[in-house]
User: What shape does this take?
Amino acid sequence: MSLLLAGFSLLAAAQAAVRPVEVSGGCASLPAYDSSARIAGPWVVPVDSCVNTTATDNVCSMEGFGSEAVYFLQQGDTSVQRGYIAIVSKNDLAKSPLRCNDETNSFESYVPSGVSGAEWKSVNVTDIPYSAQLMWGLGQYSLPIQAYHHYRNGVKQDGIFLGAHNVTTWALQLQSGSAGSGGKPYWLMRLLGPNSADPVTGDALAEGEYRTFIRVDGS
Ligand SMILES: *[C@@H]1O[C@H](CO)[C@@H](O)[C@H](O)[C@H]1NC(C)=O
Ligand SMILES: *[C@@H]1O[C@H](CO)[C@@H](O)[C@H](O)[C@H]1NC(C)=O
Ligand SMILES: *[C@@H]1O[C@H](CO)[C@@H](O)[C@H](O)[C@H]1NC(C)=O
Assistant: This one.
């Protein structure tokens, strides 16, 4: 095995050995905090330490790519109510930033809303363990996300990461374009939290999924 391949395999092992610890102190502990608005951000949230667990070199083509809002309409919707926070398929596409708002006690994203508008909306993960996508417009059947430090062997690592249930690993899977993504493919995110394995096959990751952290830019 070449040194390069050995290095990438260590990356996958290092990702697995991390222990997330929730950031205390609310939004004030996050980058770009404005104490008068009680808001931290906005920041892009890039893919960080992404790995392809089934490739021998673990290489993930999405490293550093940022987030975008992808809406979808349900039957009866006459305007945009909900959608996914996803990862762009090309990093020169427009991003949707996130921010932390102490007023709403949540993370929010700037997303399409109504007939042609855009506004800041709280984002949550769904409460379906094996399909815990990051979304806006969910309501009661969902859980807030949190910010976490990473510890390895008891030592705090650089960066602040998004997650829930003390888990900061996410799966990314490529989806074909839709009206809500402007026709462009995008990478759907799901949290790899408790019971997130496929309920039928028991596999931790589905075919074509990368495993990654999502970092708060500037942390
Ligand atoms: C990961 O690597 C495997 C083996 O090379 C490949 O078949 C698969 O498509 C890759 N996954 C992604 C998400 O690109
Ligand atoms: C997020 O989850 C909390 C807890 O279940 C819930 O109270 C809140 O309404 C949810 N927010 C959104 C925007 O889904
Ligand atoms: C997360 O970890 C902390 C510290 O170990 C613990 O107090 C808390 O209950 C955990 N939360 C969840 C949702 O597992």
User: Anything to note?
Assistant: The CA atoms of residues 138 and 196 lie 19 Å apart.
